[in-house]
Amino acid sequence: MTAPEFAAAETAQPPPPDELRLIAGGEPLSLAAHIHRYGPLPRFGAPTELIAEVEQSGLTGRGGGAFPAGRKLRAVAEARRRSRPGRAGAAVVVANGSESEPLSSKDAVLLRLAPHLVLDGIALCAEAVGADRAYLWAHNGSSTQALAAAITERSSARSSLLRVQVTETPAGYLSGQETALINVLNGGPALPTFVPPRPAEKGAHRRPTLVLNVETLAHVALIARYGAPWFRSVGAPDAPGTALVTVTGPVDRPGVREIPLGTPLGEVLRRSGLTRSAQAVLTGGYFGTWVELPAASSVPVSEPGLRTAGAALGAGVLAVLPDAACGLAETARITGFLARQSAGQCGPCRNGLPALAEAMHHIAFGQPSPEVIRWVQQLTVLLPRRGACHLPDGAAGLVASALRVFAADLAKHTGSGPCAHVAAGPVLPVPAAGLVVDRSAP
Amino acid sequence: MMATTHAAAIVVNSSTPLWYATRATGLVALVLLTASMALGLLSSVRFERPNWPRFVTLGLHRNLTLLALAFTVAHVLTTVLDSFVSIPLPDAFIPFISSYRPIWVGLGAIAFDLMLALIVTSLLRTRIGLRSWRLVHWTAYLCWPVAVLHGLGTGTDTPTTWVLVLTACCVLVIAALTLWRLARAWPARPVASTVAVVLVVITVIAGGAWLRAGPLSPHWSTRSGTTTAHSAGASAAGYGVRE
Amino acid sequence: MSQRHESQSQQSVGRLRRPELQVNPIACEAHGICIELLPELITTDPWGYPVLRPGPVPLHLQDLARRAVADCPTLALRLVTPD
User: Where are the beta strands (DSSP E) in A304-437?
Assistant: First the structure.
């Protein structure tokens, strides 16, 4: 029996409105209000039913990787089947709300306003993959007490065998990375590890581990109730469903909003109150890419849509750059930040990122020679896929897109030095130099 | 067992060629082990020249170690087969059970065991993982000096000038390369490196002092455990036994 | 073997998934021995770290590749068959 019929048999609960699937309003939903809005937690006959439903829905990860969620669920479930029976081989669920990307706030907002959707998702996935425990990682600064209270609310309402532990992710851009979180659970520092072994096979405590972004888990909770066809009823065929995006910059209504995937970028910005003209948008986050305005206004906001413009949705950040700013200067500052956040574990990143940042700094704040520009272009080709995580890829991609989108500024800087707008910044907030990754084991 | 006759005053029995073979293979094994250790140290300081790439150092290190093993096995076999002094095969593996110069033969057994461990773990390196391999490979710093002491303590030829010079050269090479290696490690681990340098210097000085007071002094063979039975048999066979 | 015959047999071997080189960037300490042994497949970046040519290892270089894997001082280089 597929989920919608089952849920319908239990409670004839209508699904939420399309633009407000995840977040009802500005106030956090208590457990009672949550059940009133969405209905009770659905039950499945067999774990594979939920996995099949999620696969059919086409849900992809909302944490930046955009990996099909159903495939992840299936991989972990299968690894669990192959592992030792009983509790010794049980899987682990990691709900990632770390949101280490400074420009993003969607996960914090979701955890504050709809914690029970996320917790539903955790419970459903835990049952589907055979997990006996779950870890919910929240951004340092988030209210872990509120989350702990929500968990207590649930366990007193109905007995649950699932142990959910809420922890604050350590500070650091890389700390929320999938393997970094697992490293911490295994007693190491919050730094990425080399894959293999894949977390789905051997992750936390050497067990099959499912790592999903909290927004992805919230969508799972909705798919379980209303089914894959409902999930696909909005969005694009190649990017179904809705997603949370964080819009920042010179807009009247910045912040987190839920959009159907595939909405044109210009439309999303218009709804956020972009009235003046702007020159570019940084999509994805600090490890993302620039797209030019107004040319990219018609680009669909989705992973495949943005890819046609050489960009990516990433963590759902859309940071608007006003006309009176220098994209090269902003990029230089961000690249400097990324270089400072390097785990320092891999030679290409430890050496290449500071070199990239220094060269970008020269391009933005000095008068770059063709050699410097050539060197930067070389680095953007030399760094990707040579680290344990995707930090070097992100930095290289950011710089490459900056050189492309701000080509006119580049020509101006080369000819006559930094433009006037350089002094107008910083527009995008870059955390101070003092932010240091804690390399010691907890 | 062969019976050959040589001219002149030396009464030959079947152990003469074996005894020479033991001493010869022992010395050659020591030289090869020194060369291997030297190349290992050069590898750890990342030595390279335009016409001497790193893989040559590594390849030679590996091949010379195997050659050293071959000569050590020959050294062990000739010792065991030599009926003049009874050193059965287990004495080559189990330290200090020998009736002949137990401590010094025992050191040989230790060095031999360590050599085998070093070689086996290196052959299985990709299977046992880096950490286990590294742990065992550290014992190379123990294996080599123990082999040197074994040679000096048991060696009939120790008081000979050329043997002393040879041994001194080996010690100097290894000491110098070890100090180079420690100098490289100093920026990252100053305390450990300084302690190690002190240890190296103390070992060399102490070794020299022991050499003077021990093998180079009179009555060493008695003190080290060559029993009067051995000595008596030797003089009966016409060997001059150094007192 | 004529060229056409050789390329046909190479194609059929190619269908058995051929091994690829992979380096663990955390374990790699830029000793550079792999770069010395396999210059056809591995080059150095400005800081001495290996840049691997993507794709499967050609048959005639597989022995050298295995030696490079065994010789890596930190066991960072691996030969993997992609699944």
Answer: 317-322
